Every structure is written in C-alpha cells, then in structure tokens.
Amino acid sequence: MAADSTFRLFSSSSDGGGGGLTQGFGFGFSESPQTPLPPPPPCVEVHSYEVSTTAKYAIEPVNFGELTLLKGRVSTQEVFALSNFDLVPGKYEGGLKIWEGSIDLVKALQSEIKNGHLSFAGKRVLELGCGHGLPAIFASLEGAVTVHVQDFNAEVLKCLTIPNFNSNLKRSRDSRVDKMDEDVRFFAGDWSEMHRLLPYARDNKSEVNHSLEYESSKTGYDIILMAETVYSISTLQNLYELVKKCLGHPHGVVYMAAKKHYFGVGGGSRRFLSVVEKDGVMVTSLVAEVADGSSNVREVWKLSFK
Fold first, then answer.
1. Strand partners for 290
2. What is the CATH number of the domain that holds 278?
3. Domain for residue 20, yes or no?
C-alpha cells in the first residue's frame, strides 16, 4: 500500500534529555557490541501510583492533524545519570526519547481507522517497547477496553509513560479515564521473560504452534503496537516469540513502525520481517512508507496469523 501523502520525515530536534524527535541514522552507545551485557532487570508490574515525584516532567504537545497528544520531557541525565547516549545496551533502551516511529505509527493508525481497516473499540491492546506510549494512549482514547504497555526500564514508566497517560487521559472527557487503574497497566522488563507477567500472554510454548487450536476469547491481545523495537539483531527472535505468545488468534493484528535499516546496529524492519518469514506462521503487509530520498526509509507494517 502506498504511503499516506500526509506523512513527512521529521527534522532532528535534540532536547538533551531524550525527549525530542531525532532523524539520526544510528544510535549513541556507551558500550561496544562486543561488551558482555549485564543480566536484564526482573520483569515487574509498575503501578500507576508509583509515578516518580522527583524527576522533572515538562509537557509538550504533539500534533496529529485534528488530534493533539501530550508528551513529557524528562532528562536522561537526571533519571539514569547518562548524557549524550540514546541507548546503553542492557541498561537503558532509549525509552525517554520520542522516536519518529511512534509518531509514524499513530499517523498510520489514524489512517487505518479512517479507511475502515481498524477499530480499537472494545479491544485489548498491548504496546511493546512503549517509551512515551503515544500509540497506546491513542488506542485508549479510541475506545480500547484494555491497554497494557511494556518498556525495558521501570524508570521510564515511572518518570514518563505513566505521567503521559495521566496528562492525556485526564484531559479527555471520556468517563472511562476514571477507571485507569483497572484497564491500563504498565510492565517493565526484558522480552525474553515478559510473557510470564503479561495477563493475556500464553506461557505454554506449545500454545504458539500455528497448527494448534487457539482460544482467542481467553488468551491474547487483539492488537499489538510497537515502534522502533527492531534496531538490535540480538533481540529480534525474543521479540518475535513474545509477539506470537501475546497475539490473539486468529484475528489479532500487529502494527510495527521501524526504520528499514538501523545503520551501525544491524537491525531494521526488513531484518525482523526475515525472522517472521522464516517462521512461516504470519503474513505481513506494508501499511505506510516515510521517505525523504535517503536510504534510511521508515516503514509501518501490519502482521497477522495466516
């Protein structure tokens, strides 16, 4: 499918605190790829009342045509004692920065709804690698009854994601926002173990075998959202296995926004799609493409079970 003509490549805007849009082709790393990674943090649920009271949180608007969402601006230096790094493998995975893919994803979701291809009403939604959580916030405002979000770092959820949800949902006139603690939940940890914690994930490995019958009414999320999650080659298989364990069968869908290639780190949408194709249980389709003539094209893809 051709890209939406309203899509534009965002200009670089460094905020020094991981809160601005960035156009960069690579990432800032404090460790070389050969450095052994520390063990991942334990998977935990972060409750909405655990919001940080110490990190400075400044609100900025992000415009999507007739829709305006609010995003926070938090200092990476203040939260993680890091500066000038987008990612520190195994310690900080870039959640305080708002990446272009999350903006692309919200725009693509808007287009899918407008074209009659998507509805969030009454759906269970999961956003993986949420960071700011704007796609999940959009899903909540569009009527999703369950919205669960995951980030590698609990600090990101406490300092940024939960405040972002609060800022956006409290300004909505939808009475459903009063039940945030019941239908919006936050989870932190590594993708390799996250299925053990997420409420609608299938923990039994055999359950993700495509040849088996699925009980979609009991397990699985209707819609999985993820933006800029496929930059690291080493995590692609874990991410894909988690997606299969979390996605409802047979009608669940995944919307993934990513750069076609991430220079310097080896991942990208096409590298992830090769993992999907090799497995053979899902089909993929291109929803939108965002390009400015450079080789670093951004894409939004839709995945579903065959």
1. 298
2. 3.40.50.150
3. no
Q: Are strands 253-259 and 223-227 parallel, antiparallel or unpaired?
A: parallel
> Which string of b and e fits 8-42 if b means at least 16 CB within 10 Å?
ebbeeeebebbbbbbeeeebeeeeeeeeeeeeeee
Q: Is residue 212 part of a domain?
A: yes
Could you tell me if 108 and 117 are in contact, meaning their C-beta atoms sit under 8 angstroms apart? Answer: no
69-128 pLDDT per residue, tens:
999 988 776 665 556 556 555 565 655 677 889 999 999 999 999 999 999 999 999 999
Could you write out the DSSP letters of every residue in 234-298? GGHHHHHHHHHHHB-TTT-EEEEEEES--TTTB--HHHHHHHHHHH-SEEEEEEEEE-SSSS--E
Residues in the chain: 306
Task: State the helix-helix crossing angle for 236-246 and 269-279, rounded to 10 degrees.
Answer: 60
pLDDT tens-digit map of 142-170:
999 999 999 998 989 999 999 999 999 88
Per the structure, the count of domains in the chain is 1
pTM of the model: 0.82
Domain range for 290 is 44-305
Domain contains 137? yes
Q: Is residue 256 part of a domain?
A: yes
